[in-house]
Amino acid sequence: MSRTATDELNLASQPAKQKLEKLLRLAKGKKSAVVLTHDNPDPDSLASAVALKLILEKKASVPTLVAYGGIIGRAENLAFVRELHLPVVPVSQVVFDEHDFLALVDTQQTIGNHSLPAQFAADVVIDHHPLREEGVTSPFADVGRDYGATSTLLVEYLRAARLQPDGALATALFYGIKADTRDLDRQTYDPDIDSYLWLFPNIDRELLARIEHPEVPARYFQLYHAAIERAKVYSDAVITDLGEVYSPDMVAEVAERLSFLEGPRWSFAFGSFRSQLYASLRVSDKRMRAGRLIRDVCVDLGGSSGGHGSMAGARLPLSGTRAQRVALKRELVRRFKKACGVEGERGTALLNLAPPA
After folding, report:
1. Which residue, 93, 99, 106, 115, is CA-closest to 52?
2. Distance CA 323, CA 163 (A)
3. Could you identify which of 23, 60, 114, 220 might form a hypothetical disulfide with 216, taking C-beta atoms 3.0 to 4.6 angstroms apart as the criterion?
4. What average pLDDT does this structure show over 183-209?
5. Is the pTM of this model over 0.85?
6. Residue 133 pLDDT > 90, yes or no?
7. From its phi and psi, is residue 182 left (phi > 0), alpha (psi between -120 and 50) or beta?
């Protein structure tokens, strides 16, 4: 299918009411649905999935299950699910043959960072990330407009459906927008601000505080100790190898934290988890197109990669001998250094940087 044809199938430019009507027509009469997030889901993905569940159940009378692959490991994300009592289950509990309506949120069919089995096709894809070159393959696709969070898209669907989220879902969507846009500071657009303000009167601020400031295990600090100790700083980049991590989303958290380092524009962190190598990239200027850079770096290394503007990530298979795994990491670093213009530089350990005069 050509890119022009897939652009025509993408509903992103249509008003929310029209998109909602098409979604409900497609869902009417279905026996049951599964809404699947991307693997190791973040709050934006989880909140969006639960909001879509509400729409399908209330407006199309379709019983809906929300599922995720991977793990929910970061302390804030665990608190998010626990405190808000979100109705989500591991994908291992889903028998896909028993459901006749499938949706993906905050990801796309061809990206590969989700656990939808290859023999199944999504009926619905809703995602704020840029449309992949492979294009639209689903009967209903709302992908890639200027939104800072997929939660913003789902808020527009709720408003078009005249559905008022309860305190838990309002808080979930609010935090989804807040987290993905870094408090409306990163890649934020008018619809994000409008949705944020619409949700605010109904959120539970006490629950939000418990989500944003959870207790963390000792290994959290141990991981940060290793990350900072191993970090190397180049003229325009900081890179760190986290080794084995206890949760894949810690890789993104470390990349985010290192992006605040004075000087370098690029922040790159990677770590291994269950025979997969996770990499995360942050850049101070969204015009530098982090998503494209990480796809170019990982193009023939297997796995999946994606992102947009100032943030991106990748997941690569990590197998073979120890020497082969080390070689993959070295090649990843070599390619990244070349892509961001620091090839040939030796780098300085972050802890050895001289303080400014």
Report:
1. 106
2. 55
3. 220
4. 95
5. yes
6. no
7. left
Domain positions in the chain? 3-212, 220-350
Tokens of 99: 């459901």
Tell me, yes or no, if the two domains 3-212 and 220-350 fold the same way.
Answer: no
The answer for residues whose C-beta is within 8 angstroms of residue 277's C-beta and 6 or more apart is 270, 271, 303, 315, 316, 317, 318, 325, 328, 329, 332
Topology of the domain covering 220-350:
Diaminopimelate Epimerase; Chain A, domain 1 (3.10.310)
pLDDT score at 306 = 81
Q: Say what percent of the chain tops pLDDT 90.
A: 82
Count Cβ atoms below 10 Å from residue 219 Cβ, excluding itself.
12
Architecture of the CATH domain 3-212? Alpha-Beta Complex (3.90)
Task: Give the residue with greater pLDDT, 50 vs 4.
Answer: 50
Task: Give pLDDT, residue 27.
Answer: 98
| Strand 33-36, strand 64-68: pairing | parallel
What is the per-residue DSSP string for 85-116? Answer: T--EEEGGG--GGG-SEEEEESS-TTT--S--
Secondary structure of residue 247 in the 3-state scheme: coil
One-letter amino acid at 204 equals D
